[in-house]
Specification:
248 residues, alpha/beta, five-stranded parallel β-sheet, 11 helices, globular
């Protein structure tokens, strides 16, 4: 896919700075791409070749004294495909230049520090692509829905996150934030598929059922986070994720 087309798709996926209603967005849409599944899969290797070339240049920049780096932030409901995206997309570049961090429930040590403490420890070095499979946004979404902190605490964090990300960008980091937008129906189908397939049954987590019960409040919390932390320095992109080939 030509670079001009990729940039146009990026613009189409960019979240609005106000009035974002995630529930109203089509999770099966394919903005900027007129083909179907076959054409999408055929286009991926070409995009991958471009990505690999850019990653090699980035890596060389870091090894010759440059300070450029990339941070890919992936957020989305359970089964939206964060891990699959990492495998299909980042699997096309040199793994030596990629650092992946997955953020789960905070440990007692992490809880004893500011919420960004564990995030800052996993930031990419110069020349690297860092990937956050979940991120600091859990601390304005999950903690809000499950009432793990006072409302005044998670509300203050929006501005803290914006300042943090703006500093990252000023220091040479390109921050790419993608919300993988999945429908509740597709999420159910993927959970059932895990149970039906013995080779994927290990992926099933009963806690995912709790998230489905919280679907609407989670979506509202994500909508607010994407709106409040959608800056020129680090904008959000909403990627329709029901069609895995388009998500990739």
């Amino acid at each position: 896919m030509p670079k001009r087309a990729a940039a146009r798709v990026s613009d189409l996926l960019r979240a609005p700075t106000s009035g974002l209603d995630l529930a109203a967005l089509d999770t099966r849409a394919t903005p900027g791409f007129k083909g179907g599944k076959t054409e999408g899969r055929d286009a991926l290797p070409e995009i991958g070749g471009q990505l690999a070339d850019l990653q090699e240049r980035l890596y060389a920049n870091g090894r010759t004294g440059g300070n450029q780096r990339v941070l890919l932030v992936l957020q989305g409901m359970d089964t939206s495909g964060k891990g699959g995206t990492v495998g299909h997309v980042l699997g096309q570049v040199d793994p030596a230049g990629v650092h992946i961090a997955s953020f789960k429930r905070p440990t007692p040590e992490e809880l004893a520090h500011d919420f960004l403490w564990r995030i800052k420890k996993r930031l990419p070095e110069p020349g690297m692509i860092g990937v956050f499979d979940r991120s600091h946004y859990e601390d304005v979404v999950v903690v809000r829905v499950r009432q793990l902190v006072e409302p005044r605490t998670w509300r203050r964090r929006y501005d803290t996150i914006n300042r943090f990300e703006e500093k990252l960008v000023a220091d040479g980091t390109t921050v790419v934030k993608c919300f993988l937008h999945l429908s509740k129906t597709e999420s159910r189908d993927r959970l059932l598929a895990r149970l039906d397939n013995p080779n994927k049954r290990w992926k099933f987590n009963p806690a995912d059922l709790d998230t489905r019960a919280e679907w609407e409040p989670m979506l509202e919390a994500y909508g607010d986070a994407l709106t409040r932390c959608n800056t020129e320095a680090a904008p959000w992109h909403v990627v329709p994720a029901d069609r895995k080939w388009y998500r990739n």
